[in-house]
Amino acid sequence: MKAAVIVFPGSNCDRDMAEGLRKAGADVEMVWHKDTDLPAGVDLVAVPGGFSFGDYLRCGAIAANSPACQALVRHVERGGYALGVCNGFQVLTETRLLPGALMRNAGLKFLCKPVGLTVATSDSAFTSGYNAGQVLNVPIAHHDGNYFVDDETLAALHGEDRIAFTYAQNPNGSRDDIAGVLSANRRVLGMMPHPERAIEDLHGGTDGRALFAGLVGRFVAA
Amino acid sequence: MKARVEVMLKAGVLDPQGEAVRAALGSLGFAGVNGVRQGKVIELDLAETDAASAEATVRQMCEKLLANTVIESYRISLS
């Protein structure tokens, strides 16, 4: 699989994201936010965590309008895969590739700790390496992870089995404990927890590995 | 021409920062504050001199960047 990781001023999980993908066997290229085109033949575009453009105005708002993100939107419209983690999830909602928005944590505090993350569906390239109902140990690190979505969209997310992950114990006020959601065609995942920070024993756990392995495995099998 | 854009969380969307301010006002002894909503103000200095045209452009700016209309509403005033 060929993957691209977009790098913005303020990205700080870009190399961790690339490492997660490479360790799973992907061929990874970094893409600068000013690049107007993605490398040829890219299967997956990953938007990493961090504080793109200092989170000025709103988290992810300025990044979502960058040339590289406009290329990402075209990639997804063509049926390509995309993964957004933390700030990357905020960017994907700002581009409207994923529904909803991420608001300030209900407790108003920046949260940085491991959380229990329940796999809500195994029916996607991102979650096929897990069993539905399985509880993972994955870290969060965010100030604006409170997922908001209106009632109608929330019902659609439930009805279409598009909630990928929920928090075992809601840390930030997210509606229905949502920690990650899929696009309608299940090829775009946005999630607040950091699977790329849970791939080495040194990280304190390796529960994030199967996400990258499942994703890359999808392309090897095809 | 100057444009002033007020961006607020939509009614019905919980505003955690507004709630924190409300609680702080209560603990300072200000009784009777039933609700606080916190938003932001963005001032634009525009080269445009035609009000209608300026408003249309600022509206596009709001829809594209200045507000996230999933959770926020905006109000434009020109002077």
UniProtKB/TrEMBL annotation, chain A:
The active site is formed by 86, 194, 196
CDD domains (UniProt xref):
GATase1_FGAR_AT
Q: Which positions, given as ranges, span the membrane?
A: none
**Superkingdom of origin organism:** Bacteria
Q: What is its main location?
A: cytoplasm
InterPro entries recorded: Class_I_gatase-like, PRibForGlyAmidine_synth_PurQ
- Any GO BP annotation: 'de novo' IMP biosynthetic process
One CC-aspect GO term: cytoplasm
Pfam families under this entry? GATase_5
Q: What are the record keywords, sorted? A: ATP-binding, Cytoplasm, Glutamine amidotransferase, Hydrolase, Ligase, Nucleotide-binding, Purine biosynthesis
Q: Which PROSITE patterns match?
A: GATASE_TYPE_1 (PS51273)
Pathway participation: Purine metabolism; IMP biosynthesis via de novo pathway; 5-amino-1-(5-phospho-D-ribosyl)imidazole from N(2)-formyl-N(1)-(5-phospho-D-ribosyl)glycinamide: step 1/2
On assembly, the entry states:
Part of the FGAM synthase complex composed of 1 PurL, 1 PurQ and 2 PurS subunits.
Q: What does this protein do?
A: Part of the phosphoribosylformylglycinamidine synthase complex involved in the purines biosynthetic pathway. Catalyzes the ATP-dependent conversion of formylglycinamide ribonucleotide (FGAR) and glutamine to yield formylglycinamidine ribonucleotide (FGAM) and glutamate. The FGAM synthase complex is composed of three subunits. PurQ produces an ammonia molecule by converting glutamine to glutamate. PurL transfers the ammonia molecule to FGAR to form FGAM in an ATP-dependent manner.
Q: Which NCBIfam families is this protein grouped with?
A: FGAM_synth_I (TIGR01737), PRK03619.1 (NF002957)
User: Which PANTHER family does this UniProt record tie to the protein?
Assistant: PHOSPHORIBOSYLFORMYLGLYCINAMIDINE SYNTHASE SUBUNIT PURQ
Q: What is this protein called?
A: Phosphoribosylformylglycinamidine synthase subunit PurQ
Gene assigned in the entry = purQ
Automatic annotation (TrEMBL), chain B:
Q: Do the record's keywords include Calcium?
A: no
Give the E.C. number(s): 6.3.5.3
GO biological process assignments: 'de novo' IMP biosynthetic process
Keywords carried by this UniProt record: ATP-binding, Cytoplasm, Ligase, Nucleotide-binding, Purine biosynthesis
Q: Which SUPFAM superfamilies match?
A: PurS-like
Q: Which reaction does it catalyse?
A: N(2)-formyl-N(1)-(5-phospho-beta-D-ribosyl)glycinamide + L-glutamine + ATP + H2O = 2-formamido-N(1)-(5-O-phospho-beta-D-ribosyl)acetamidine + L-glutamate + ADP + phosphate + H(+)
Signal sequence bounds: none
Glycosyltransferase recorded as keyword: no
Functional pathway: Purine metabolism; IMP biosynthesis via de novo pathway; 5-amino-1-(5-phospho-D-ribosyl)imidazole from N(2)-formyl-N(1)-(5-phospho-D-ribosyl)glycinamide: step 1/2
GO molecular function, one example?
Answer: ATP binding
HAMAP family xrefs? PurS
The entry's function note states:
Part of the phosphoribosylformylglycinamidine synthase complex involved in the purines biosynthetic pathway. Catalyzes the ATP-dependent conversion of formylglycinamide ribonucleotide (FGAR) and glutamine to yield formylglycinamidine ribonucleotide (FGAM) and glutamate. The FGAM synthase complex is composed of three subunits. PurQ produces an ammonia molecule by converting glutamine to glutamate. PurL transfers the ammonia molecule to FGAR to form FGAM in an ATP-dependent manner.
Q: Which family does it belong to?
A: Belongs to the PurS family.
Listed name of the protein: Phosphoribosylformylglycinamidine synthase subunit PurS
Q: Which organism is it from?
A: Ketogulonicigenium vulgare (strain WSH-001)
